[in-house]
Amino acid sequence: MIQYNITYHTFFNPMSNISKRLQAIDALRGLVILIMMVDHVRETFYLHYQVPDPMLIPSTEESLFFSRVLAHICAPVFVVLTGLSAYLYQAKNNSIRMTREFLIKRGLFLIFLELIVINFAWTGKFPPDVIYLQVIWAIGLSMLALAALIGLPKKLLWVISLVIIFGHNLLDQISFSNVPIIHSLWLILHERGWIEFGDVIRFRTSYPVLPWISVITLGYCIGTQVFDQSVEPNKRNKILLTFGLSSLTLFFILRFINVYGDQAWSIMPTFTESLMSFFNVTKYPPSLLFILWNVGIGLILLVLLQKVETKNWIKPLIVFGSVPMFFYIVHLYVLKGLYLIAVEVFGKNYGDYYGVSSVGMLWLISLFLCIGLYPLMVKFSNFKHKNKHIPFLKYF
């Protein structure tokens, strides 16, 4: 009989009341992992149709737009759950020092993976001439930042998180292009751009980290607020639902006001185009509206998944969510291999790229990959569960 790793053993005592909620956390993580895979299939087999950020409504087909918007939920949920898990680790061990050490080690490990293992999966070049600093890098740096912050009073952590979330768009027009050293730091923190070291290597700061630091801190603060042992499950759900609905309400209010939080939206020739304009928010770096919308949906999904976490049909999501980093690395290399095979067999049918002809094909490829990778995820999840004494495995 297949044994499912349905609890996130790194952070919980399996006998505690809170540990029963881990299935929903893993299920949420698993859900967004599979949504993420669709977007990565797009970035592999739909490169002939580039999508800027934010998207250009008149030239973007509807199915591609809404697939991309759906994928926006992935990074915010990953980062919020990382902060939440940090609090749960601290609650289990009753030690800020141990939590800080874990965050530092895990953060450095993620940065290493991004620079070496993951970057090679995208570019296929070693040594690389370009290194893309993407979501795993951003999570790693955010964990280092959280490690420095967690000793502060809870109220101050809430203030820091919310001030950055609501205020960082005020920094959008600031640039330090005339001050090279500060400019490089600013590109890491808040402005997407290129950091160049002569003709040797360039870094692309795809995920400026300042807003993500606020999101991981928010996840930690939510943990302190609702995942304390003294909070009853029903009350916990009500608070999470209130947070989620409040976040969405603020999104709609600010979006209708159309003054602050992202680029303005506009009424367009058709209703669908107007709707697309309304939800066309900025990811790099994540705007206030991007964070409000996606974190709000993530928290509501967490509540809903707790209601079905014991159902058999939810177990595949739990399995995927229990081995997130292993899945992340494996699926990138599988996609790279499939792309090289496709080029070898079919040639480059769209200029410099091989690609499929429709967004529907992207979803179909993703479905087959999900089914094909699932048995491997089950085996690794079981292996991870049975070998908890191996410290290295907890990072996957």
TrEMBL record:
Signal peptide: none annotated. Keywords: Membrane, Transmembrane, Transmembrane helix. The chain crosses the membrane at residues 27-49, 69-91, 103-124, 130-149, 156-189, 209-227, 239-261, 284-305, 317-341, 353-376. The keyword Magnesium does not apply. Residues 21-253 form the Heparan-alpha-glucosaminide N-acetyltransferase catalytic domain. InterPro entries: HGSNAT_cat. The keyword Cell wall biogenesis/degradation does not apply. This is Uncharacterized membrane protein. It comes from Acinetobacter kyonggiensis.
